[in-house]
């Protein structure tokens, strides 16, 4: 590699003032704009991803096709479609509840609860998982409690949470937090344990302190496992939230579905179930999108999609 020759300066004679130094051009700092984010997203839209999207659409369409045929011809072998509402009946139910704010308010309340519990779980589980995975004494201190509490299902916490928290809203958010906390924590710990020790030793040789080591080596190296935990935790959080809303909630998609069951309103039950599935799919899609933005190197790793 050849270096660019510097421009020779004129010699300074005696009695002549030295030339003023040329001011360096200011460094242009890239800013995060909507165009930058959109370009980063569209850069990862490749032929393989389009095919994957189309196959996903075919899979969902096949599921609805089975539902349509089963309800149209009222199949009655081991699975009975006799009382299952048709897609048209569910769509009519959607148009009816869409005219009122009740359905949208229930969705907004459930989304608020899931995001609150989920982000609290991230704020606690990720730092704690990094510390447990890195330091043996921290692992000895916290892991016995984790192993005792982890097998308890989130639904079993409902009676206790009602006694612990001053209102149902805080209790439901706590149940959602419990559902998301343990998958995120355990996957973060596994991510630290799976990190190549050569990277940590290289960071120390380059003079990185503990904070720099965590921020520049351990956290980026653990991100794939952390996002796996986020995806799993989001699914468990939705299951926990719906169960809590059915038992002790007065609003939310879970309460909407349970109320429809109490009123023997089958189309509303199916509408509630589809709503839960769509919301869960949207949340998982957002997590994957954020993962693509934060881990662009995975697209070029072995086995990754270009």
UniProtKB/TrEMBL annotation:
Which superkingdom heads the taxonomic lineage of this protein's source? Answer: Bacteria
Give the record's membrane topology.
Multi-pass membrane protein
Cell location: Cell membrane
UniProt record, GO biological process: alkanesulfonate transmembrane transport
Q: Which PROSITE patterns match?
A: ABC_TM1
- Pfam families, A to Z: BPD_transp_1
> Where primarily located?
membrane
- Name of the molecule in the record: ABC transporter permease
């Amino acid at each position: 590699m050849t270096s660019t020759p510097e421009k020779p300066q004129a010699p300074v004679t005696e009695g002549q003032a030295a030339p003023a130094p040329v001011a360096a051009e200011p460094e242009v700092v890239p800013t995060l704009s909507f165009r930058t984010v959109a370009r980063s997203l569209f850069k990862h839209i490749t032929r393989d991803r389009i095919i994957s999207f189309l196959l996903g659409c075919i899979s969902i369409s096949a599921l609805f096709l089975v539902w349509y045929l089963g309800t149209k011809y009222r199949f009655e072998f081991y699975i009975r479609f006799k009382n299952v509402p048709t897609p048209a009946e569910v769509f009519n139910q959607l148009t009816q509840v869409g005219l009122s704010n009740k359905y949208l308010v229930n969705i907004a309340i459930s989304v608020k609860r899931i995001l609150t519990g989920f982000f609290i779980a991230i704020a606690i589980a990720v730092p704690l998982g990094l510390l447990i995975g890195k330091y043996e004494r921290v692992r000895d201190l916290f892991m016995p409690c984790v192993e005792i509490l982890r097998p308890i299902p989130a639904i079993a916490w409902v009676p206790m949470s009602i006694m612990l928290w001053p209102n149902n809203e805080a209790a439901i958010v706590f149940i959602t937090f419990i559902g998301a906390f343990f998958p995120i924590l355990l996957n973060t710990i596994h991510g630290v344990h799976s990190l190549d020790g050569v990277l940590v030793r290289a960071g120390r040789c380059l003079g990185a302190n503990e904070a720099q080591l965590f921020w520049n080596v351990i956290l980026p190296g653990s991100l794939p496992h952390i996002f796996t935990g986020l995806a799993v935790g989001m699914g468990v959080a939705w299951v926990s939230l719906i169960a809590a809303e059915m038992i002790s909630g007065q609003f939310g998609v879970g309460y909407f579905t349970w109320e429809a069951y109490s009123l023997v309103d089958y189309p509303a039950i199916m509408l509630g179930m589809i709503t839960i599935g769509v919301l869960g799919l949207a949340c998982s899609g957002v997590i994957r999108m954020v993962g693509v933005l934060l881990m662009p190197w995975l697209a070029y790793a072995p086995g990754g999609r270009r």
